[in-house]
Amino acid sequence: MNQKIALNRNENTTLKETSKTKDLVLTGLLTALVFIATKFINFQLPFSIHGGLIHLGNTMLFAAAIVFGGKKGAISGAFGMGLFDLVSGWAVWAPFTFIIRGVMGWVIGTVANGKGRNGDSFRWNIIAILIGSVWMIAGYYVAEVIIYGNWYTPITAIPGDITQIVIGIILGLPLVTALKKSKMM
């Protein structure tokens, strides 16, 4: 009897370790996807004075947060886009991005998956993205004020932020649907 209990404990420990490993690998993969979509699929708006970078990182962040929840959305957004800033000549932005995108991913994932919705409600997914996006725009506005010491110049980055959000919604929500229908899920 004691041997059987010991075997069950070992099996449970192995299952927990396997689950933690899968969780870590999935979180790393989502972070890498956010980073790659930010780093390699982007262009800069010609009319923005200090930035206006348009990228598809939001598409991956939206999908990660809606499909896998707030924790993975926060981690993949914070680390994926923060790493982009560090390796792309935008290092001064990295601490701001880490916080702004981390909170954005958490908000989107939490709202989209709250009250048993599990990211399945198109309406709540849009609401989640809009709430997270208002946070992002406000956060980057304040960050630009801090970095550049000017209240007016940061306004030029807002059209780029809105463009990123719209593109993220257009591409991200169909990706969410495809992921949720896939056999992997």
UniProtKB/TrEMBL annotation:
Transmembrane segments: 24-41, 53-70, 90-112, 124-142, 162-179
Keywords noted in UniProt: Membrane, Transmembrane, Transmembrane helix
InterPro entries, per the entry: ECF_substrate-spec-like (IPR009825)
Cellular component terms per the entry's GO annotation: membrane
Highest rank taxon of the organism: Bacteria
Protein name: Uncharacterized membrane protein
Organism the protein comes from: Natronincola peptidivorans
Organism taxonomic ancestry: Bacteria, Bacillati, Bacillota, Clostridia, Peptostreptococcales
